[in-house]
Hints:
The protein starts with 15 loop residues before the first strand and ends with a helix. Strand 16, helix 13 and strand 17 form a beta-alpha-beta unit. Helix content is 40%, strand content 16%. It is built from 15 helices and 17 strands. The protein is α/β, with parallel strands linked by helices. The strands form four sheets. Strands 5-6-4-1-7-8 form a six-stranded parallel sheet, sandwiched between helices. Helix 5 crosses helix 6 (155-163). It folds into two domains: 7-175 and 388-404, 3-Layer(aba) Sandwich (Rossmann fold); 185-374, Rossmann fold (3-Layer(aba) Sandwich). It has helices at residues 36-50, 75-85, 97-105, 122-126, 129-136, 155-163, 170-183, 203-212, 221-229, 244-257, 298-309, 330-346, 355-363, 378-384, 390-404; strands spanning 16-20, 27-28, 31-32, 54-58, 90-92, 112-115, 141-144, 166-168, 190-194, 215-218, 260-262, 266-270, 280-283, 292-296, 313-317, 349-353, 372-373. It is elongated.
Amino acid sequence: xxxxxxxxxxxxxxxxxxxxxxxxxxxxxxxxxxxxxxxxxxxxxxxxxxxxxxxxxxxxxxxxxxxxxxxxxxxxxxxxxxxxxxxxxxxxxxxxxxxxxxxxxxxxxxxxxxxxxxxxxxxxxxxxxxxxxxxxxxxxxxxxxxxxxxxxxxxxxxxxxxxxxxxxxxxxxxxxxxxxxxxxxxxxxxxxxxxxxxxxxxxxxxxxxxxxxxxxxxxxxxxxxxxxxxxxxxxxxxxxxxxxxxxxxxxxxxxxxxxxxxxxxxxxxxxxxxxxxxxxxxxxxxxxxxxxxxxxxxxxxxxxxxxxxxxxxxxxxxxxxxxxxxxxxxxxxxxxxxxxxxxxxxxxxxxxxxxxxxxxxxxxxxxxxxxxxxxxxxxxxxxxxxxxxxxxxxxxxxxxxxxxx
Length: 405
Ligand code: 3PG
């Protein structure tokens, strides 16, 4: 693959730079619960402002399905972004049309504006030519700094790269370089840890990993389906009944490939999430009929830690329990601490990605103690599955076109 130029490689002074960021941050009770995605895009915005560009920031927020919905407005994120940057950031009430054009026309060199949620327009997800044209008229250059959205063939990701001179932002560059350097030819033994609630949303990842890793530890809700496939009593734990055969197939494929599967040997159970004071640790094959598994237990944490001691690389996606509801975050946080410790003590190459794991690692104060933490969720999965990311392909193609011109 040819190299994608970055903002360092071009003159931006006085130019209108359309920066696609991913400000799709998690919220809890109306407040941003994890600022990582905001913090990680700051270097690109700062650099462009410092060098006198007019910085026009584009992002989606949630999935409003092409219609205006105030609960998905980016207005509150503008304040958080301004606070993080330490300078004023203007807000544009629409990302296209007269309002956007006027707001951009009033922008001075060195200033930044965040335009309203791209997904208030159906043309964004449809990658409609008309919508991409409207966005493109707002800028002179396009900067993709949203690796985490680059698996989406949307107008602000692909359409803009096709229409404007395009470069990568620092975060996109960092994400690609780290994933390629650390995981294209991982040092072996190579381990995967996968959690989250459903096998169905990570089928392709599990399938790809049993082909490449030496050890795969499975936790979170999806482990229940594997435990059920092994005919364990899983009480009232949620699981995917229609995927029992798929779970069995994954287990068989792993065995054939010499990939060791580590399922929870003990779990933390309660009647449901509201009954945390009454939670208890039980063996995974003996979950009481009226209880559900809500976290991995201490013996499982120990087993994962022990196995990782013998590994050189680990990738992690998906929480290992209902981590938003303490004390069911203990398993996820304990594994995060163990990985951080091994990264420091024995040079384990540790790479984590996905919104929930990102939030859990940040909550535990361990973000700087992994070799690399990706801001991407779906894009991280698709990259690991070996899929082409349309946003990255579009940048490469535009770059080739520019080089030939
Ligand atoms: C993410 O949160 O992974 C990105 O912001 C992409 O969001 P999406 O899955 O709604 O496209």
